[in-house]
Write a structure and sequence with these properties.
The complex is a heterodimer. By secondary structure, chain A is an all-alpha fold. Chain A contains 15 helices and no strands. Chain B is α+β, with helices and mostly antiparallel strands. Helices cover 19% and strands 19% of the residues of chain B. The chains are: A mainly alpha, B alpha+beta.
Chain lengths: 377, 238
């Protein structure tokens, strides 16, 4: 028994000793380029196909999950008819959406109306490209990953704003204006929370941030400030993706459907899909920055336990953690009532922002004096 | 959590203007600091999340019923009002005396009672015609009946392709009610006084809707509604 434990311990030690070698798909393609152009092309094609599969799979899966979880939160059953426990419901709905008539309002700005959903979708897909799913599963590790993410996610606002503006509908316009105000406001807090982690990790690269958490995740390794930053980021990013309790841009009891009131068919599907993928992206970022990304859960000193944890592949760790955060975001949605516009702004500018700044200052001090846990390791 | 604990309300006697006066003292609303309110708000969010999580993890809280699948075990409320029925007494005789009180009580003339001179009594029930297509299921007929001859059963699956099939003759036989039949000791004479009636055989199954383009109705006689007597019906005396 002790022998087995010792073996496990040794195995674990060996595993942790060899740090996770990160190799992105883009890096592989670049490596292959001088020798074999077609291999490089194949890598990029694989990456693109993977992105496409991820978007469609995630969209359908998340929508189904959301409906099921929402139903059970409300003492209902949710989809039950199409396939066992309704698992093919989203497939059926997708087909329905694809075949629906695509209506553009008569006085709408047609070019912008058509462009808006693609803008929203593009920003989402661009973010998917830099998320480290596992050490070997990342399309491109941009060395300014966090900055890239914040910049690109800001592009999504353009989709919402244009969609509402071009629809020539008061509900759409109000929803879009609210959405823009909300997303731009909460981006400040979200970025402040991200900065705390960037300071501790000393890098903007997302893979770099993940590998910096080999000795402990930033949520607790950064004393207190990590936890506070995590909560701020979770709140602010929930607002950024327009989900309840911050769903005032599309508050259906006030604005019909907000900025996408006038959208139907495929274009509506794009907005809808972007919303759900955004939820995944936000969860993935939360995991990457605060919860160790694809790093297994390790307890300092408990080598046998760590070894067992290492048996689970990093991709599964990432997926599990992300699923957990996604669940929490869904949990928020089906528990909390929607905020009023003024309450929303007050929460951001009077509560989250001051706390975020104070947190950032404290974090800076902690980094300056190396006041974080497990510093030597 | 609660800001004011109303359970702390107490009664006491105070001296007002030199006289003892009984008063009720409710707890005062305590103004608290912002941090306390903030903590309270956070705690209430967590309490809400705990509640919804309880619903999520306990399948027993689901109230949805999977209808066509659960027909065998379907439970309907005791006072569910669907199909009207003439009750039978313990001998299998109808209680209806054709007094027409239900016909008068019916708010939209969904009930029509035809009588005929009887052998054992002056008048007896010929046909009890009930139009389900116009019935509002208000229960007024059941309440107006002094003999307990009517009841609403829980049979609710009535989809048909021809609305004429929603006009029923409710009585299974034309003849005197149980109260009259039981005075006649001769079983054979009782049987002779009862002439069978089927649900769709009435003289007015169309009741004005027999338009020229409507084909004559080929009636596949529905099973006797009495088949639902086995199901527990409210106040079912059948």
């Amino acid at each position: 028994m002790t022998g087995a434990l010792a073996a496990f311990a040794a195995f674990g030690a060996a595993e942790t000793a060899t740090a996770w070698p990160v190799k992105t798909v883009a890096a592989r393609a670049a490596e292959a380029l001088p020798d074999n152009v077609w291999l490089a092309v194949l890598y990029m094609a694989l990456a693109l196909a993977g992105l496409g599969a991820l978007v469609s799979g995630l969209g359908m899966g998340l929508i189904y999950l959301e409906r099921k979880i929402a139903a059970h939160f409300q003492c209902r059953l949710g989809p039950m008819r199409v396939g066992p426990h309704g698992i093919f419901q989203t497939v059926a709905d997708t087909f329905k959406l694809l075949f629906k008539e695509d209506i553009v309002p008569a006085r709408a700005d047609k070019a912008l109306h058509v462009l808006a959903p693609f803008l929203a979708m593009t920003s989402t897909v661009l973010m998917l490209g830099v998320i480290p799913y596992s050490p070997v599963l990342q399309i491109s590790d941009v060395n300014i990953g966090v900055l890239y993410i914040t910049a690109v996610s800001g592009l999504g606002v353009m989709g919402i704003l244009l969609g509402g503006w071009s629809s020539y509908n008061k509900w759409s316009l109000i929803g879009a204006m609210r959405g823009a105000a909300q997303i731009i406001s909460y981006e400040v807090s979200a970025t402040l929370a991200l900065l705390v982690v960037v300071m501790f990790a000393g890098t903007l690269s997302l893979s770099g941030i993940v590998t910096s958490q080999a000795e402990g995740w930033w949520i607790w390794r950064a004393p207190v400030v990590g936890g506070i930053a995590f909560l701020i980021y979770l709140t602010a990013s929930t607002a950024e993706i327009n989900r309840t309790p911050f769903d005032i841009p599309e508050g259906e009891s006030e604005l019909t459907a907000g900025f996408h009131t006038e959208y139907s068919g495929l274009r509506f599907a794009f907005f809808f899909l972007a919303e759900f993928i955004n939820m995944f992206v936000v969860a993935a970022l939360t995991v990457t920055l605060f919860l160790g990304g694809w790093m297994p859960f390790h307890v300092g000193g408990a080598n046998a336990f760590n070894a067992v944890m290492d048996l689970v592949p990093p991709g599964a760790w990432f997926l599990g953690k992300t699923a957990l955060v996604v669940f929490v975001i869904m949990w928020f949605r089906w528990t909390f009532p929607r905020l009023r516009v003024d309450q929303l702004m007050r929460l951001e500018w009077k509560i989250l922002l001051p706390i975020g700044f104070a947190n950032l200052a404290l974090g800076a001090l902690a980094v300056l004096y190396s006041l974080y846990f497990f510093p030597g390791a | 959590m609660a800001r004011v604990k109303l359970t702390d309300t107490r009664k006491e006697t105070r001296t007002l203007a030199g006289r003892p006066v009984p008063v009720v003292v409710t707890p005062r609303f305590a103004r608290r600091g912002r941090l306390a309110v903030f903590a309270d708000a956070l705690a209430s969010l967590l309490a809400g999340m705990r509640l919804t999580f309880g619903y999520l993890v306990r399948p027993s809280t689901v109230v949805t019923r999977q209808y066509p699948e659960n027909r065998a075990t379907l439970k309907l409320p005791a006072r569910f009002r669907a199909r009207l029925r003439l009750t039978l007494d313990e001998h299998g005789y109808q209680r209806c005396t054709a007094c027409r009180l239900c016909e008068r009580a019916c708010p939209n003339a969904s009930i029509r009672i035809l009588t005929r001179p009887g052998a054992l009594s002056k008048h007896e029930l010929d046909r009890y015609i009930w139009r389900m297509d116009s019935c509002v299921f208000c229960n007024a007929c059941v309440q107006s009946c002094p003999f307990g001859a009517l009841e609403m059963t829980a049979e609710f699956e009535h989809a048909v392709f021809d609305r004429r099939l929603l006009i029923f003759t409710l009585n299974r036989y034309a003849g005197p009610p149980a109260s009259v039949l039981l005075k006649e000791p001769d079983e054979a004479k009782r049987a002779a006084a009862m002439e069978p009636r089927d649900p769709y055989g009435g003289p007015v199954p169309l009741n004005g809707t027999d338009l020229p383009y409507l084909k004559a109705l080929a009636v596949a006689p529905r099973p006797d509604p009495v088949r639902h007597a086995a199901a527990p019906a409210p106040g079912g005396q059948a």
